[in-house]
Structures are given as C-alpha cells and as structure tokens.
Amino acid sequence: MDRYERILSLHRILKTARYPVTVARLQDELECSRATVYRDLAFLRDALMAPVVGDGEAGFRYDTEDAERFELPGLWLTSDELHALLAAQQLLSRSTGGVLSGALAPLQSRIDKLLAEHATGDRWPVERVRVIPHRGRRMDEHAFRNVCSAVLQRKQLSFDYRARSTDEKTRRTVSPQRITHYRDNWYLDAWDHERDALRSFSVDRIGGARLLDAAARDLPEAELDQHLSGSYGIFSGPPKGIATIVFSETSARWVADEHWHSQQQGRWLPDGRYELKVPYSAARELLMDVLHYGADAEVVEPPALRQQVKSLLQLALSNYDA
Predict the structure, then answer these.
(1) Cβ distance 215 to 155 under 8 Å?
(2) Burial 263-272 (b: 16+ CB within 10 A, else e)
(3) Domain boundaries, the chain
(4) Do 174 and 192 contact (CB within 8 A), yes or no?
(5) pLDDT tens string 156-202
(6) WCX domain: from which residue to which, for each copy (predicted)?
C-alpha cells in the first residue's frame, strides 16, 4: 500500500486499539518494514499532531484522553469513498416521500455525520461536490420492485421483454441471479429457462413482471463472473475475440488513463498513438464507445469488426448526403 493508505490504516488501528499495538503487528498489518513503521508513527505524531504514546517494546497507542477528540486533518477519503458517500447522500435526498424515506432517515444522518467527521470546520459544503446522473432511463417502478424482490427472495420471475434492438416482445421465465447498476441504468442477470442460458435484461424494457412460487436456480458465483464479466460491456458472455483499437495522439492522453475492461492491454506506439486491446463478445456496446471518439479511433483487428465499424460510418455519412 502507498503512504497515504498506511497513514490512514495506522490511524484506524491506533484509534480502535484498547491496548498498545506492537511494532511487529503494525509491520504485518501495514505490510511494510520496521523502519517504515517508525517513520509513519513519527509523521502521525509530529506532522499531524496525533496523540501517539508508547515505545518500541511495549507498543504504541493513542492517549486515552485525546483519542476520541482526534481526527486526521483535511480530506482523508479516497476518490471512490468520497463518490460512494456523496452518491448515497444525494440519492437519499431524492428519495423523499417514498415508503423508505422514514426508514432511511437515520442512514442519511449517519452519512452526514461521517462527512462532518472529515471536515476541518463545522461541515463539508457537500453541495459543492456533485454526482450527476448520465443518460438514465425511465422504468416501470412496479416491474423494478418485482425484479429486485425476485433476486433477493430467490424466486423465479416471469415477465414480458421488448428487445431494444428488434422491438420484438417475448414472454420470459427466468431464475434471477443478480441486479446490476451499470452506467446509471439497471440490468437483470438471469438464467433464461426457455433458452437454457445466462442472459442480461435491461430492466427498463421489462413489463408485466410477476414472481412465481418456484425457487430460482442458483448458479455458482465463479460461473456468473466468467460469463458476465469476461467480455466488454453489460451484454457480454464468453469472449469471442480481442479487439485492437488505435487512438490518435490527441485522444491517447485520455484513453491511456481509462479503464475499459479488467483484462485490457494497452501500450504507447512510437508515433505517440495508443493501442488498446479488449476482449469482447457482442460488439454493439464496444463499437458505440469506439465511435464516440470519431476520427481519433481506428479498429485495426479483427477484420470483421473493422468492417462493421466501416459499415456503420458509411451509414452515418449517408444521413448527411444531399
């Protein structure tokens, strides 16, 4: 772990410890050398004014009288932690009037208190940090509740599904596995009994959802992860190929810092461009993201995917012909 994480972990260990903590234990928990433990303890005591007491033989702890009052100065939250807290805080503030609004009030208070504990003054001006939903879709709340109930109660679910790509309406009976929030929209990962396979369904396309008495079929977590996380995007499945995409020198500065897939491979090319390789099954979502970069992205391989991009661009260009 880096120094930031070590100092934060060290603070938490000493703040919650009822008895002095030995250097050996700190080495083990912080995954660092004995010398690093002493340097971090000195920084915590001298630079951050933490009430550290003790020695190398008996161990270290926070002074009992000052431990409750001391908090690390400034913002000691990671970007993920801050996003999670603020997203929860802002989502809860939008849930007024619902059946859960009263029950969630204590959670809202706890989040506000947790944010306040990290403030240097009376409170963080959280209104100055925004979490903005992007391209969320409207959905049938009744269907959403039934989908979630089926997932949590481990019951089979029956519903009408209108595929977005073909607008075809079918009746499905599934064993729900997971409910997934992805790119500001909800998806149901389920075992489709008619097709005898795992499928992902966009919840906003589900209607007439009805819980069945039959118990849902449970699939192993490893199988779910392999099928649903192996390829690019939400509608995945086992990877069928590796897409190689080359980005211009201009867009490379953005793409090199982006996380497209857990198994992506990227490298800088000698001319300043950036090459990205990602596994994919269904090309639809991958191509939408590639086309987002316009002329700054080129699909190099495989040839079939390259031809698919070319056809899409030609169709798009035809919209602008005189």
Answers:
(1) yes
(2) eeebeeeeee
(3) 3-67, 79-128, 141-219, 241-318
(4) yes
(5) 999 999 988 788 999 999 999 998 888 778 889 999 999 998 888 98
(6) 243-316
Residue in 206, 291, 195 with CA at minimum distance from that of residue 251:
291
CA distance 29 to 16: 14
Question: Which tokens in the block code for residue 188?
Answer: 């149901």
Report the chain's terminal Cα–Cα distance, integer Å. 59
> Contacts from 117-123 at CB under 8 Å and sequence distance 24+?
117/71, 118/71, 118/72, 118/75, 118/76, 118/77, 120/73, 120/74
**Res 240: pLDDT:** 81
pTM of the prediction? 0.60
Quickly name the fold that domain 3-67 has. Arc Repressor Mutant, subunit A (1.10.10)
> In 3-state terms, what secondary structure has residue 254?
helix
CB 184 within 8 A of CB 234: no
Question: Is 233:285 a contact under the CB 8 Å cutoff?
Answer: yes
The H or E element containing residue 112 is helix 101-117
Peptide bond into 302 cis (omega under 30): yes
Q: How many CA atoms lie within 13 A of 289 on its CB side?
A: 20
Is residue 57 classed exposed, middle or buried when 0-12, 13-18 and 19+ CB atoms within 10 A define those classes? exposed
**DSSP H helical segments within 164-247, as ranges?**
221-228
Structure tokens, 240: 């069928």
Q: Yes or no: is domain 241-318 CATH 3.30.70?
A: yes
Q: 141-219 maps to which CATH number?
A: 2.30.30
